[in-house]
Amino acid sequence: MSAMQTIHVDGVWRGAASGASREVLDPADAKTLALVAEGGAEDTDAAIAAARRAFDSGPWPQTPVAERSALLRRVADLLQRDREDIALTESRDTGKTLEEGRVDVDDVTNAFRYFADLVVNESGGRVVDAGSPEVHSVVVHEPVGVCALITPWNYPLLQASWKVAPALAAGNTLVIKPSEVTPLSTVHLVKLLVEAGLPDGVANLVTGAGDPVGARMSDHPGVDLVSFTGGLASGTKVMQAAAPTVKKVALELGGKNPNVVFADACETEEGFDTAVDQALNAAFIHSGQVCSAGARLIIEESVRDRFIAELAKRAEKIRLGRGTEDGVECGPLVSAQQLAKTESYVRSAREEGAVVRCGGTRPEPSEIRPATGFFYMPTVLDYCHGDMRVVREETFGPILTVETFHTEDDAVALANDTEYGLAGAVWTSDAGRARRVAGRLRHGTVWINDFHPYLPQAEWGGFGKSGIGRELGPSGLAEYRESKHVYQNLNPRPVRWFAG
Ligand code: NAD
User: Fold this and answer.
1) If residue 407 lies in a helix (H) or strand (E), which one and from where to where?
2) Degrees (nearest 5) of the Cα angle 264, 268, 269?
């Protein structure tokens, strides 16, 4: 297998300057899926220099907003044209099901269209009343400059697009680095940007490791903004690396998201069935490798036994397998490392007193095809509490922990007892309680009687250690803009502050 040319600098596709390449594995069978260029510091410097030139002297920042918007729309159309291809790539690369891959392409298409509209609607400056007819004062938006975009492996296309679409809409140039584990859909996306007519040097791509590529993007003086999505440990390093050059930093980090279920949500059979079904979806979709996974079930004591029994029964029936196969509901974990991490969390939870209601192990080799894949059974851990590592830390695996409460205050306290604050849900049939609890949750997204939906027009991001800044919505565009106040004196005269 020859290495793909996955580095894109100044309009040219090429391999790494060093000639190095990296194997990308299919997590369903641990076999090589592709060989990609393994970029290094030299490739990163070249990509940043190209983006710098394209920003400082290229046409893109001065391109009329309507034309930038039209380009984003063309990208959206191309994404739809290649929907099946991209979904397949994403499924093979990440292990997620083909249907999830399709949903990702559709969501990303919507995000491109949303930012295409938003940038046109928000392109005008804001005239400010300066208190004098002799002054014209206006606040205008300008692009930040060269943006370094670093993305994770769980939603490669989606996370890339939430950054690329607003960055380009605002007139920036960029260098993007996908996760070294799942780079393939980002390569496809950059090809579509080129096909849509983006000028050379505006969008550059370097495939490679967090260090050196991501680290260089974070500390490089030629970069004006770094937008990072990934884990807390890497995000902290990005922020430290960015500090000496005082570049803008946006961080979308992890989560440890509570799913709070009140007994009144389960009073009817339909309510019970819905709450169980959604708790399952919250925790186990994409094998729990979701930043907003509802990994903590916080349930009212009076319904716990019935709820957990039903949940465990359904979790055991989840059909694991290769994401591209018909009927498969959950794919593998993305890597051997992620599998080992999951096993270690379940081990520590057992040692700390958790009771395994289902899962807690890899599937028997005879029960899973292909047997060499990184599969782990959906796992429900009962009798958990806030001192346990499995409750405090983001496992990013198919693990659901159960904690219980008696009062509304207890439920809120438990849900907020996390250093993260990305997302959370409350299930209740009491409208007043729903609004009260939603108001008290310290999380960037709160769902009432639902879990997981998001909208391109609504901000996404976290409180606490879940990050800094927001993606999507008007704030998602504002991240990529500088405001400039232009104050024009229409009748200049001496001020005579100094007598002489
Ligand atoms: P990760 O932190 O290991 O890697 C993320 C990216 O950072 C990769 O491209 C990696 O190569 C790069 N990187 C690693 N070290 C770096 C460094 N020192 N400097 C610069 N870049 C570096 O995360 P991951 O394992 O790929 O992804 C999972 C994490 O992403 C989870 O914590 C998850 O919650 C988070 N995530 C958050 C959101 C959100 O919207 N908040 C969305 C998706 C994923």
Assistant:
1) none
2) 130
pTM: 0.97
Determine if ligand 1 sits within 6 Å of the CB of residue 230: yes
252 lines ligand 1 (CB under 6 A): yes
**Does the CB atom of residue 60 touch ligand 1 within 6 A?**
no
CB count, 10 Å around CB of 235? 22
The residues, any chain, with a CB within 8 Å of residue 67's CB and separated by 6 or more, are none
Three-state SS at 304: helix
Residue 129 CB partners (closer than 8 Å, separation 6+):
137
pLDDT of residue 1: 82
Three-class SS state of 173: strand
Cis peptide before 152 (omega within 30 of 0): no
Strands in 135-143's sheet, in edge-to-edge order, are 126-128, 135-143, 481-489
| Spacing, Cα 176 to ligand 1 middle (Å) | 13
- Give the span between the Cα atoms of 106 and 103, in whole angstroms: 5
Q: Each residue of 384-408: pLDDT tens digit? A: 999 999 999 999 999 999 999 999 9
